[in-house]
């Protein structure tokens, strides 16, 4: 049983409650996600047995949904580490309740992004080929290296702020299963909350927050170079780097809204994840929608006014031929719906931002698909025009990947707290000090004036 001499705060009691009790709704969600994941896993094993011929991939369409998934997951990984790091560096106090959710999204999105490359290789043993045969003349190996560094740094950036909360659970969640108590004890690293430990932890987090920003930017820039350094129509462009970075931040914020809202509702965290977070992040999402629209206009306008025949063919495929429904759906999801909802203050509510974020998540996946597929169906090296149609195998594996991402995320927050308790408590203490200082200043002004 829990130590009765210790009095939990309302925040701690609310945050730790889902770790102690499991609702039927949680098991239902896990059952549904598990079924979808199992479907995808079975189709993946079938693909390994029968080969990539069960997919829609063929010459010259050697990339398809799997590469779109890869770019999408690597993009949403910017939800946490980059956004959280920027908010930490700028001392945005309202960030405190949402940083851990954002950082967890980064960690699991990177894992799923790497899995997409493994899936696309066709055979499981080929995952070792970049290590055995990789050459640094290839942007693929640059990407492999950048993502590896990003994953390691994101893991550390997620773990460091968890140490005080792990020590808290080690000391006070005595009713937890034995394996979890051992896990908390191991990961807490002997933390006892001294002033010196806090000073060193804050310094380490600050250093990581500064270092991880250029690492995150480099990752999606290098992902864009995989496309931009080829001669495929509408890929060979210098705009791809900043375009991909903006799209990554855009989709990352949207994914943060989705999971933040789910956790807020399911874990009953409405008191701490409230209107301030939704308003400020909603404004940021609106700004990123405008940036995305600007880069999209720049890309398509310059291509449309150009005279390169092969690029014109790809552009027409997107605007008026078989990929037109995808393109216009992308535009509606990424620009029309977010602006219609988020431009108004009354739209930046949990419901409004959740709807806008869902639209953006769908729209940004479509954007990655319309980058990959149309250019490959109209190559510039003598191949005939082809049509790429994803098969049920690719659809199942994609659905299974999304389900696996959600499963990892939910399981993580069944073992570890969804809110950084010590950081929120620290923020509340700072706010109390500020209010007291303001009250003293007002009293002094009154006395001086009298």
Task: Write the topology of this structure.
Blueprint: H1 10-20, H2 24-50, H3 65-76, H4 81-89, H5 99-120, H6 129-133, H7 139-159, H8 163-172, H9 178-188, H10 195-228, H11 240-266, H12 275-305, H13 309-319, H14 324-342, H15 350-377, H16 392-415, H17 421-449
Description:
This protein has 450 residues and is mostly helical. The protein has a domain of 297 residues: Formate dehydrogenase/DMSO reductase fold (Up-down Bundle), CATH 1.20.1630. Helices cover 74% and strands 0% of the residues. The protein contains 17 helices and no strands. α5 runs antiparallel to α7, α13 packs across α15 and α14 packs antiparallel against α15. The radius of gyration is 24 Å and the shape is globular. The N and C termini lie far apart (58 Å).
Characterize this entry briefly.
This protein has 17 helices and no strands. The protein is mainly alpha-helical and 450 residues long.
């Amino acid at each position: 049983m829990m130590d009765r001499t210790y009095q939990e705060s309302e925040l701690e009691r609310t945050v730790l409650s889902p770790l102690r009790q499991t609702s039927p709704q949680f098991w239902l969600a896990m059952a549904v996600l598990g079924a979808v994941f199992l479907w995808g896993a079975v189709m993946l094993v079938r693909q390994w047995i029968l080969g990539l011929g069960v997919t829609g991939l063929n010459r010259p369409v050697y990339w398809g949904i799997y590469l779109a998934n890869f770019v999408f997951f690597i993009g949403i990984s910017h939800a946490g580490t980059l956004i959280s790091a920027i908010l930490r560096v700028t001392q945005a106090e309202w960030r405190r309740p949402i940083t851990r959710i954002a950082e967890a999204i980064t960690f699991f999105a990177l894992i799923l992004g790497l899995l997409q490359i493994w899936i696309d290789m066709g055979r499981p043993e080929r995952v070792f080929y970049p290590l055995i045969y990789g050459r640094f003349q290839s942007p693929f190996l640059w990407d492999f290296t950048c993502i590896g560094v990003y994953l390691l740094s994101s893991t550390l950036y997620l773990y460091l702020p968890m140490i005080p909360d792990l020590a808290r659970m080690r000391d006070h969640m005595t009713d937890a299963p034995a394996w979890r108590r051992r896990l908390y004890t191991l990961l807490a690293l002997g933390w006892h909350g001294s002033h010196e430990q806090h000073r060193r932890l804050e310094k380490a987090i600050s250093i990581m927050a500064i270092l991880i920003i250029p690492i995150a930017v480099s990752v999606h820039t290098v992902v864009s170079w995989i496309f931009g350094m080829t001669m495929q129509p509408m890929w060979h462009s210098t705009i791809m780097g900043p375009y991909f970075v903006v799209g990554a931040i855009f989709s990352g914020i949207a994914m943060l809204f989705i999971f933040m809202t789910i956790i807020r509702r399911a874990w009953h965290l409405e008191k701490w994840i409230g209107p301030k977070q939704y308003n400020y992040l909603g404004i940021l999402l609106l700004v990123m929608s405008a940036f995305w629209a600007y880069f999209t206009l720049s890309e398509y306008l310059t291509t449309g006014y150009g005279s390169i025949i092969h690029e014109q063919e790809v552009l027409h495929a997107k605007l008026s031929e078989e990929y037109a429904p995808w393109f216009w759906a992308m535009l509606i999801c990424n620009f029309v719906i977010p602006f219609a909802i988020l431009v108004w203050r009354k739209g930046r509510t949990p419901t409004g931002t959740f709807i806008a974020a869902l639209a953006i998540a769908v729209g940004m996946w479509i954007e990655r698909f319309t980058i990959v597929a149309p250019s490959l169906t109209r190559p510039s090296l003598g191949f005939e025009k082809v049509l790429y149609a994803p098969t049920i195998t690719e659809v199942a594996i994609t659905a299974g990947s999304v389900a696996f991402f959600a499963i990892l995320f939910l399981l993580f927050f069944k073992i570890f707290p969804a809110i950084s308790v010590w950081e929120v408590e620290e923020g509340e203490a700072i706010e109390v000090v500020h209010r007291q200082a303001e009250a003293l200043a007002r009293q002094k002004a009154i006395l001086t004036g009298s």
